[in-house]
Magnesium transporter MgtE
Amino acid sequence: MQQAPDEPERSLAALLAPDILDLLETDPRSIAAETEELHAADLADVAELIDRALVPQLLAALPAPRAAAVLEYLGEELRTELLETMAPEQAAALIAAMTPDERADALEEMDEDVADEILEAIPERERAETERLLQYEADTAGGLMTTEFVSVPESQTVDEALATVRAIARAGRREAMQTIYVVDAQGVLTGVMSLRELLAAPEGTRVADNAWTEIVTVPADAHRETVVQLTSNYDLVAVPVVDADRRLLGVITVDDVIDVIQEEQTEDVQKFGGLEALEEPYLQVGFVELLKKRVPWLIVLFVGQMFTAAAMGFFEDSISAATVLALFVPLIISSGGNSGSQATSLIIRAMALQELRARDWTRVLLREAGMGLVLGALLGIVGALRIVVWQWAGFYPFGEHYGVLATTIGATVLGVVLFGTLTGAMLPFVLRKVGFDPASASAPLVATLVDVTGVVLYFSMALLLLRGTLL
Amino acid sequence: MQQAPDEPERSLAALLAPDILDLLETDPRSIAAETEELHAADLADVAELIDRALVPQLLAALPAPRAAAVLEYLGEELRTELLETMAPEQAAALIAAMTPDERADALEEMDEDVADEILEAIPERERAETERLLQYEADTAGGLMTTEFVSVPESQTVDEALATVRAIARAGRREAMQTIYVVDAQGVLTGVMSLRELLAAPEGTRVADNAWTEIVTVPADAHRETVVQLTSNYDLVAVPVVDADRRLLGVITVDDVIDVIQEEQTEDVQKFGGLEALEEPYLQVGFVELLKKRVPWLIVLFVGQMFTAAAMGFFEDSISAATVLALFVPLIISSGGNSGSQATSLIIRAMALQELRARDWTRVLLREAGMGLVLGALLGIVGALRIVVWQWAGFYPFGEHYGVLATTIGATVLGVVLFGTLTGAMLPFVLRKVGFDPASASAPLVATLVDVTGVVLYFSMALLLLRGTLL
């Protein structure tokens, strides 16, 4: 990530907050005008900074559309708390002024009863629209789309379409307008054109004759990952969502896609770290909830490691016969875990970017087998040398059989690294095959899987090579 | 990540490729018309599928701007190989037709001599433009921006501005046009307005009176992470890049920002996995190069683990006195590594999203201290119970002193998990403090750091509690 070196010590919001607090006390009416030029996101940051009790007053001091825009930029936690605590009429007025997709998201996060109460209080049109959106799963295209977009009938001329666009823009409504959608009488999507293409189109001609007919669309029930893929593959600023009959249902705008990308990535990193993904920013998650996300995996892994202990117990005689063997156990098992962690991170990321499909597993297997052999050989040599050098240098007396011991360590490391690499590379494919999220193949899980095998391999190798000498 | 369940088995490109290959043989001239409606990205996918020797012919069969667009969607590897091998004139013609930012990127990846040769061959205006862009570091705002954007002088009226926009759009040039930039006589950025706002603005008024004057800008030398932050915080579709005097230098479009987000996230995951970040997709990286990215960290960690072996050696007497102690070494050290991995993944992700600033370290320290204590206590109890239960159930005879042993294990696990959690949480802050990338705090690195301490803690605890009984 490389921390941005130009990270500002004080945010714009921090600079603005005092003045705005002043105005709230002295002359709230002036706030709207004073902050007119500010980006809603900055006002939202101010709201996050000031005393929560004052936020409703701040919002009340702004025109409804503006206040709604600020709400859309607020953190989920604060937004939900605000809407749940403020007077239902004020909440309803604000929610009604939000864009349909943000409105649905906001209501989804709220206490159901309060949400229903508010839904009842908002205008019929907005309510119907919102109830329709609420039917879609949050992680689908339908759950991301907004229903306010600009569509024009095929029959319209470029001039008529431009007039429509102008009217909507002038009405100050918040439709997604990066792309103009051309639909037939049944509402079936037949063409798309960017606003610039509409401007460039010759007056008098029909929009249909100027629009693109090869259209990238996504079904409403498509997983949001698919939306991300389409957006990034085709450099889209808006993705049209259609039903089974290609009727245009809504539009997903690129800013929401960016949010999805960052949420999915956060989930992946946290899962890879060995915990359940958090729904909120680290500092906003409650202590107990954070605990709940971390305990289960830790217990599972801990219990898993008990098998390692059991495996060690199985070889207790060897250990007591040659204590020196025990010294290298951490070195050996961790080399397997580390190489496994490398392989897993590569594969789950390549899967997330859809660089790897399920059918690529054989290719990966071969590649990582070679990789594991070379990596294992290198580390094995280092490990063996370590013993030889310590012996010669007199750092540690391994006794006359240090050569065989070195061989044992070297050979084991080779085997463990190879096994670790293959496990790490294949586990995501296996999880995916059985319907789990490949990203659940966390570094700690891979390490734990490899540890048991490492121990068994190590002592079996020892019994094989050291029998008659150390054992 | 939860891979898209609706992942298509055959891509559109796979379906198109055969027909296009046909046309290449029979009637290349018709390809342009036949593929007119296709998205350039799909043609690029076709190019990735077919025999590389045929790609230049495919590109030659398309009009220059179209072929250039296809080039922009090609994978770096194929694009570089193509441009380096095709006739310099053809390469120059294609490169000249690319957008300035893509042109600079393409040249940067090529062999320097070839790149210079091509630069010489492209028109003066494009060459100057490109040379200017090549001066910026690839990971800065300057390295991401395009120099083709729409700016209008303050003095212009809305009608004049619209006419300018129309003219540019009709000329079929590829300027970024989501946002119109208003500049004064010195080229200083004084206002921005979206194309829709320009359409909504009353005719006859000056653009300056309709544009926003609070403008989100980024300096040319800003790190690309800053560009990502601004884009996602403010839901921008284009970020203006300015020099020290706020003169407008270029514009970064959202599609390039999305690429950056995904690249940075890939780097973070790979670093967290314990290897150096790859520059190319997993399957495109050469075996040797992949090896080079993985070996260094593996060696470093392996050497690090030798200290664990040394630590074990220090306690060899205890081990030979009570072999049973050795059995739990993997269990104990891995519990530290796992809890550390959890903490690290949470912190580096929160840092990447700028949810955590450097100054938050104390807050995190306290929070994770509490977390480590609770997690450690829970795992410690499980660990101690395991011994007691095994003893009672007769699975394994720990002897009369199993109670003390259980206490030792439990107390050590508590300590190791606490230490692991704190190490994992603080390491990213430390790395950042000393100027490294916090994302380098990989799961394997944390585990290795914690292992040594775990061993020392374990056996010290044992010497303390088991003296006179097992030891």
Notes: The domain at 282-466 of chain A is CATH 1.10.357.20 (Tetracycline Repressor; domain 2). The two ends of chain A are 50 Å apart (CA to CA). The CA atoms of residues 317 and 323 of chain A lie 10 Å apart. The longest helix of chain A spans residues 361-393.
